[in-house]
What we know:
By secondary structure, the protein is of the alpha/beta class. It folds into three domains: 2-266, 2-enoyl-CoA Hydratase, Chain A, domain 1 (Alpha-Beta Complex); 294-477, Rossmann fold (3-Layer(aba) Sandwich); 485-701, Orthogonal Bundle (N-(1-d-carboxylethyl)-l-norvaline Dehydrogenase, domain 2).
Amino acid sequence: MSITSPSSGTVHYSVEQDIAVLAIENPPVNALSNALRSALFEAIERFENDETASAAVLYGVGAGFIAGADIREFSLEPWGPTLPELIARIEACEKPVIAALHGNTLGGGVEVALASHYRIAQEKTRLGMPEVHIGLIPGASGTQRLPRLIGYDAAIAMITGGRPVKAKDALQMGLVDELTSEAGIKEAGIVFAQKIVAEERGPRRLAQVGAPAADAQLFDTARAEVAKKAKGLEAPSIALEMIANAARMPYDAALAIERRTFLELKESAQHKALVHAFFADRSAGRLPELKGVEPRPLSQVGVVGGGTMGAGIATALLLSGFSVVLVERDEAGLDRARSVITANLEGAVKRGKLSADGLAKLTGEALVLACEYEAFSNADLVIEAVFEEMSVKHDVFSKLDAVCKQGAILATNTSYLDVNAIAACTSRPQDVIGLHFFSPAHIMKLLEVVVANATAADVLATGFALAKKMGKVAVRAGVCDGFIGNRILAKTRAAAEAMILEGASPKEIDSAIRGFGFAMGPFETADMAGLDISWARRKRLAATRDPRDRQVGFADAICEQGWFGRKTGSGYYLYGKDVAKHTPNPDALELIEAERVEKGIAQRSFSAEEIVERYMAAMVNEAAAIISEGIALRPVDVDLTLLYGYGFPRWRGGPMHYADAVGAAKILDVVKQGAKDDDYFWRTAPLLEKLAEREATFASLNG
Length: 703
Ligand code: T1G
Ligand code: NAD
């Protein structure tokens, strides 16, 4: 029979060979919903009263045991037994309860397993406490039971790091009692339970086990390590203190603090932002345009150009199992490409991502280097990564059009150029698309898939399928100067440059933006990418630029000196073996000051808060325009772009989630304030105005 509650989640109860079998079912991941907790609680009560059953086995129907609390229900009013109540009930059973684990056993799933008296796991089980990834701590005794079972070091690593462990490591650390290679976890559980009964081993209750002793140093060392890795995340350090409580107070007192802290964190801004990011990840490829559209098959992929991007893209393709044909202009170009690709792949070997044999294969038969475009005749997709100049792109696409087979997809990695104009150089615009990778292409997770006017639906679908195979996050973008990410970047950088003219220093701005949570500020990023890139873009746009579009002079003046950033030893900062990080380039500061004097601008000071406010207002306002224009289909696509391509702090959820948290009205105020001085740059995006008026959120537009 089934014990079913009105919302999703069921436990099927049966007795097989004197063992009660509790089959937990809540597809797709058996999350502990209100309904499932209720059903499990009832099933446990039934087992206690069932004289025909001498032990119980809990197992998950489907791909795993239990993937933790139901994240979709965090924002709802809970009902039925809480997880701590359920867990206490399981542990209190007078007859042995065995958790039989397979697949994902995460968070509350591990807590259910820890409340059970014995644990058996299939060899491929992943056991983890990922709560910190959604800004939480284990909320149902995990911080107390886990160290009692596996000791402080292992518990600290699992809980504060959030990474799952493999079953064989779980066995070694004592987290599970036995491993099974049996395909049926239910059957293995029953056999294990019968053994427990036959050996008359009764319930083992972790709550009754004393906490291990801890030496004074242990938690101090851990505090320093956790803080160093946290990068703005609050939950890991808080979780660590909960574990430390196990060593310094009785079980019940520590448990009460854990629960209270968990409930507080459930209301925190970081938790809400991280849950937003969790669901954003899962909505990435969910586009109406892709529904029911079959991607084209991909096996051999061509790359034109073996420079920074081409070599990185080729590396990423090889690591994802594609065979690659790379074409450069001459032998010297090919040599450079080969050595960069080999070095990248050697890095993958060092990181344990590739074997030495794999390296030989990828640099051998899987990679063909050539100087003739005819080498692309068999390619299913060719990705162009040559110089950012329309005339060069024009030449390359005409040649590709001539040599590539029918149905081959022709893609450009351009950062800013018009993909419609590139498509027009071919006789097959329906097969042309933008595939905008980020540098380093074999590391960065974002892929902007840029749809031109004539791009066919199955070509777009192939872009998304490619990203999936490469382990990247794909975001659909429309054609405009810079697509989603670089267009926003250009706008925020311009807002930062304007603040510099008013009196802030590049270092103050970078430090404020890092304080917000970005890995780097805009000027150190520009120095790293090369200042010549945006200089070239400014020159390209100069002829068509709106006369109201104010430009700072110092950005060009710095480039005119040949200071292109890190690669030339100086830019906004100085670089060199003996130069401390973030040492401003005094000559660049002089150029800035000279421009202030020339324009009669009185220098004033900026607080970090004001810098962030302006920077983020410029970002959100531009993003709102990008959404209205259909360049980004949904606000969540902007969030994904900034999270995966631009170092936006995940615990802030992305710029649109940030805007929702702050409120559209507040952002609009900053935009309007800016418009008093420069009403062209700070022209209000009508969407922002509309949301502010209606007190509505960007999230409401995600559909
Ligand atoms: N709650 C609700 N839905 C979930 C879910 C969860 N915990 N986990 C996954 N889903 C949905 C997901 O949205 C998607 O739905 C579908 O399942 C498949 O997921 C009290 C506080 C389990 C490794 O953080 O890490 O327990 O989009 O596409 O790649 O102490 O999902 O198809 O509609 O990701 O095979 C701790 C989060 C909670 C686990 C599977 N648990 N999940 O990956 O499939 S806090 C987590 C994952 C907690 C206690 C604490 C992964 C996965 P849809 P998927 P996958
Ligand atoms: P790069 O100068 O490092 O490399 C370009 C390579 O293309 C050179 O090796 C050159 O020899 C080769 N090349 C030029 N013309 C060619 C031709 N006709 N046939 C074959 N090879 C040719 O440039 P990059 O930084 O790799 O940028 C390439 C493209 O990627 C540009 O469109 C750029 O805007 C875009 N992009 C760059 C970055 C970045 O961070 N560098 C990021 C995303 C996109």
